Amino acid sequence: MRLMASVTSVPTSQAESIGAEAWALFLTLFGHHRRRFLIAAGEFDLHPAQAGALLNLAEPLPMHALASLLACDSSNVTGIVDRLEARGLVARQLSPEDRRVKHVMLTPAGRRLRGRLLERIGSPPEGFERLSAEDLGQLRDILRRMLAEPAGS
Amino acid sequence: MRLMASVTSVPTSQAESIGAEAWALFLTLFGHHRRRFLIAAGEFDLHPAQAGALLNLAEPLPMHALASLLACDSSNVTGIVDRLEARGLVARQLSPEDRRVKHVMLTPAGRRLRGRLLERIGSPPEGFERLSAEDLGQLRDILRRMLAEPAGS
DNA sequence: TATTGTTATACTCTATAACTATA
DNA sequence: TATAGTTATAGAGTATAACAATA
After folding, report:
1. What is the CB-side half-sphere exposure of residue A153 using CA atoms within 13 A?
2. Among candidates B24, B100, B20, B23, which has minimal Cα distance to B64?
3. Does at least one atom of strand C sit less than 7 Å from the CB of A81?
4. Is A146 within 8 Å of B136 (Cβ atoms)?
5. Which of A3, A12, B11, B15 has the least CB density, counted as fewest CB within 10 Å?
6. DSSP B8-72
7. Confidence band (pLDDT; 50, 70, 90) for A113?
């Protein structure tokens, strides 16, 4: 994707320059993943937002929680879930605790489709298998440190 | 995002298990990046596809090349470029070599907006600054190996 | 009063197919 | 004959605002 191609940055240290390259490589990887995701969703006749919803439904979720995960307005989730429901992939369930809330849950068919989607994009992409066992260990540890919650968050 | 949460895989080796965790961490990172991208695009009144087009226009590109990078049909690019052009962010330029081709290029205003977008999402996200210089070097080298073209591609 | 989910609206994205101009 | 870009069309995503039901 060459997202960084024309960024004229002036690194103040070598570490900063290396970090910039590492992040540029991440962006390249994001581009690959995005295309893989779009292609896989299309093969199952799912729009990207629908595929994203299925992936986030490992367990039942209130509508507003799904909206938050999809980074879109709640009003959109109504339509997305409507269409998934029309295809028999999800069902709405009234919450007994809070009668304002509806939980969205996968049907058996929805769970099967989600599994097939995960086979396609949940597994590591081409290139991953070239990494050594040592590489994988280092990578995992570095990503863990990067994603560790910074105490107050 | 917990994309891997309910994947019941049976790792045949420890390396495979570590690799699976590393990839799951990648997916978490993708989710963070996607949300950051959507929020940044919205702040500049750009739809995601428009923001993606701007980011890919570091240099002038034929319409069909842009379609390929955005992983969408050429007919969509016509509309996306129409709207960016109406806002004075890009311009179409006929190619002198092949008169079927139109190159899309940023205007000065488009270049400024692209720069501001890159300040927001082209720079490393929260968490990156917690990595040591050694981490960054290892990460860069591993990602390089992962993204290296496998001879015939 | 605040929150949850829905509806109405307007605009954009998306794929498909058909079309023109060019190669 | 194939390719580049456009147009027309239909269906879906998106944000905003207004609404009813519930907390």
Report:
1. 7
2. B100
3. yes
4. no
5. A12
6. ----SSHHHHHHHHHHHHHHHHHHHHHHHHHHHHHHTT--HHHHHHHHT-SS-EEHHHHHHHHTS
7. very high
Residue type at A35 in one-letter notation: R
Query: Is B122's CB within 8 Å of A3's CB?
Result: yes
A144, two tokens: 């863990």
Strand C positions with any atom < 7 Å from protein CB? 3-9, 12-18, 21-23
Query: Rounded CA gap, A137 and A131, in Å?
Result: 10
pLDDT tens across A83-92, in order?
999 999 999 9
Give the C-alpha separation, B142 to B119, whole Å.
Answer: 25
Between A128, A138, A146, which is nearest B128 by CB? Answer: A146
CB B75 within 8 A of CB A43: no
Q: B44, B72, B37: which is closest to A3 by C-alpha?
A: B37
Distance from CA of A121 to the nearest CA of B (A): 10
Distance CA A72, CA A50 (A): 12
Amino acid at B148: A
CA-closest candidate to residue A94, choices A68, A73, A63, A65: A63
Question: Strands A90-94, B61-62: parallel, antiparallel or unpaired by DSSP?
Answer: unpaired
Q: Report which residue type is found at B125.
A: P
pTM: 0.83
Give A150's pLDDT tier (boundaries 50, 70, 90). low
- A44 within 8 A of A120, measured Cβ to Cβ: no
Q: Could you tell me how far CA A29 lies from the centroid of its own chain?
A: 13
Determine how many CB atoms are found less than 10 A away from the CB of residue B11: 12
